[in-house]
């Protein structure tokens, strides 16, 4: 089905009707490819749909009602796709959790969403749920893709196969009426996204939000249904959820599942036509070949990404312009886009037929973008969420007269291309596309008795780092205990024993958050922040941006 005719011919009222129609259309063709024991295995479109129906019927047998929430806590695997469609076909909404979450974070998101059930990948993820089960009174069942050891009798536990075996004729027949009751306003998912303070907010996205965004992104993808997309980005994030999952179903593409560890090998094995990724992957590839002459560099890039590759796309974090230029020289369009979880996510994207390097492209069809007086990017259209789950105050602050306030600052050129020039909010994004809420991490660090203050750093970087102000009296006492002195170089403490001691304490407190959020390296300042140095406001609040600008050279050196 060609991109230009898709909007005119579709009669989908939900993600379920879209997937069911496409599965019927493509039947025995390959929908999904996944690895097991070093080999790729295929799932046909008709089997994909059949498995989703049986799992949906199993959820109905477990008592899931339309509008209920079911969480998914799993690494990427082909069953994730099937579970998502099963939950939607049961009339429920899913709550995808990021696989690296700590138990405390799982507890909050499952509890706040009032999920009645949770689907997990295996023992490690199930154990997180068992650890906080006493704080989750609404949770009734747990389904695991793999066999697990049940560690509690307070919840019903089933295997994935066991869930599908529950399907009966009555529950299978009921799926049709539940899907028919869905429309574009029906809630499809709640995705928790990092905020600048406190607990994350639950972004509500509807079937219409996700359908419209996948459809209008597909219109500029310029891919045929015979293509394969190599997929490794986590499906709990909205970018892969919309593009790698729903858009590929819409276009009839084959999705081959990969991982960051096997990505380079899988590019050679699969020879895909499309790869969606984040800047960090392209940065690492570029760093490996940047010293070659232009001709050799182009050949190396083609060898890495394969002769079938038609385009590479990048999102989730800013892409360095020089890397996009280098890829283009090799006739490999590396196209950057922009969006947020609250916008399903794509607001704008470059396409192979219409791009401007350094920009994040033009807005999608039906997506309005304007720049506020203070430079903030605002957007309006069918891609904008209806609001935050159980948080009307945050919703009212984010959406005014239908316009969503992105928190980013940018400009639009005379040809309609959007450029991101700054981040209005303190929230930043690592080069791997992970949203980081610095204030929360800083509070966690400062709760340690040996840490007085902290400023977190890492926008566009490979990992999170920090500038730490120690509790100097406590640190001096520890130095005496360790038989060493506090030594400094410039403004920073350099005593190896003390740095190792603090490193161990930071590692412990960082266990409260997921791996991508954890502070990996830090500098230790030998003095407190000062009002007189403009590091603190008159009310003693840390001026984060000022401090980062002041010490950015030293912080950047942590990544060398």
- What percentage of the residues does DSSP assign to strands (E)? 15-25%
CATH class group of the largest domain: Alpha Beta
Quickly count the domains.
Answer: 3
**What is the makeup of the main sheet?**
9 strands, mixed
As a whole number of angstroms, the C-alpha radius of gyration is 24 Å
Helix content: 25-40%
The poorly predicted ranges are: 1-5
Structural class: alpha/beta
**What is the residue-mean pLDDT, rounded to a whole number?**
93
CATH architecture level-2 label of the largest domain: 3-Layer(aba) Sandwich
- According to DSSP, the number of beta strands is 29
CATH fold call of the largest domain: Rossmann fold
What overall form do the CA principal axes indicate?
globular
The fourth-level CATH homologous superfamily of the largest domain is ANL, N-terminal domain
Distance between the termini: 48 Å
Strand order of the largest sheet: 2-1-11-10-12-13-14-15-16
Specify the number of helices: 19
